[in-house]
Amino acid sequence: MARRNTRRQQSTGKPAWVWFVLGSFVGGFAVFVFLLNDLKTAQTQAVKRAEKPVAQQPAAGESKPRFDFYKLLEENEVKVPEPKNQQVRVRDGEQKSSETPERVEPKSDLVYILQAASFRDKDEAERLRAQLMLANLDVKVESATDSRGTWHRVLVGPYTNRSKMAAARGVLAEHRLMPLVLKRPAQG
After folding, report:
1. DSSP character for 5?
2. Spatial distance between the Cα atoms of 111 and 187, rounded to a whole number of angstroms
3. Nearest to 139 by CA among 123, 151, 127
4. Is 12 helix (H, G, I), strand (E, B) or coil?
């Protein structure tokens, strides 16, 4: 059996650090030339500004800027008439207070119910109901039968306004549930 040559063949090219240093020098030289060119153009512009005759500069009296927009604003001013009745209206049954009143939504005959999940197994639905009850939600399990079998729906609510429903939706999102919003007629 022949013994393999264990030595690696030496590359005949230059080492990588040589190329790095050479590239750095070439790049530095290019930046130096660019900056020198910018310096020359800046100096020529400064010389041209200094060579301008003094006669082209405006006289001392004319150097003040004129602001016409003060006059234009006064001419375009729109007068708003004062309100006829300056008393604050208060709804019947409400009292004036310094506290901000809660936003009252119009009463409707609909309630919002959130369907958190539906399961074929009643034990899974009850387990989720227990978890959501610990999160301080009003939860019930409703069974429904269709052509595919019996489903056990986990329902949260009912809520009479959207803000309470949105808060409950946030709690369900914390439990990684994406509920369906159901609108049902209010009972009683």
Report:
1. -
2. 9
3. 127
4. coil
Yes or no: say if 79 and 143 are a contact pair by the CB < 8 Å rule: no
Q: What is the pTM of this model?
A: 0.42
CA angle 166, 171, 176 (to 5 degrees): 115
In percent, how much of the chain has pLDDT > 90?
A: 15
pLDDT above 90: residue 181 = no
DSSP letter string over 83-95? PS--SPP--TT--
For the chain, the average pLDDT equals 79
Locate 120 and state its tokens.
């074929």
Q: Cα(19)–Cα(26) distance, rounded to whole angstroms?
A: 11
- As a residue count, the chain comes to 188
Nearest CA to 116 out of 105, 127, 108 is that of 127
Q: In the prediction, which pLDDT does 147 show?
A: 86
DSSP tag of 167: H
C-alpha 42/C-alpha 35 separation (Å) is 11
- Whether residue 185 is preceded by a cis peptide bond, meaning omega within 30 degrees of 0, is no
Q: Which two tokens stand for residue 57?
A: 């500069």
User: CA–CA separation, 4 vs 145, rounded Å?
Assistant: 78
